[in-house]
Design goal:
24% strand
């Protein structure tokens, strides 16, 4: 069983990143490093159930535009999940966001005041678009 899916054997982030394909590993590390710089917080590694398994989570105070960021080191599909306040989209319409993000916004789930979005992080375009989104949400 891959370490990413083993709930009862807590892995290290180094082990998880080591299971990523070399190209994906570079994108994942770039986004991970940028998240710490942009958000000024270190993520914590936690078990998130059978969908996201082990992932790195950064959470924020209630009332912030950016509620949480989940870096998911899935060996087959590394991705990032972002929870935003629905109020974020009042000041930043999706049409003003990088084009890469539109597909993830189209499949996002909105309940109450929160919107959950998810994107694969398999390209530099993806990493750059997600960084831009986080900068906007952090300043909003």
């Amino acid at each position: 069983m891959p370490i990413w899916t083993s709930q009862f054997d807590k892995p290290t982030i180094k082990d998880l990143i080591g299971q990523l394909d070399p190209e994906a590993r570079g994108f994942y590390k770039d986004l991970r490093r940028s998240l710490v710089e942009i958000l000024n917080k270190k993520p914590k590694l936690d078990w998130m159930g059978v969908t996201w398994h082990w992932c790195e989570i950064t959470t924020f105070d209630a009332g912030d535009m950016l509620i949480a960021v989940h870096l998911v080191p899935d060996p087959l599909n590394p991705r990032v999940g972002v929870t935003l306040s629905t109020a974020f989209f009042d000041s930043t319409p999706p049409s003003e966001l990088p084009k890469y993000l539109h597909a993830g916004l189209g499949t996002a789930t909105a309940i109450g005041h929160q919107t959950w979005c998810e994107w694969a992080i398999g390209s530099q375009e993806a990493v750059d678009a997600i960084k831009e989104l986080l900068l906007l949400a952090q300043s909003g």
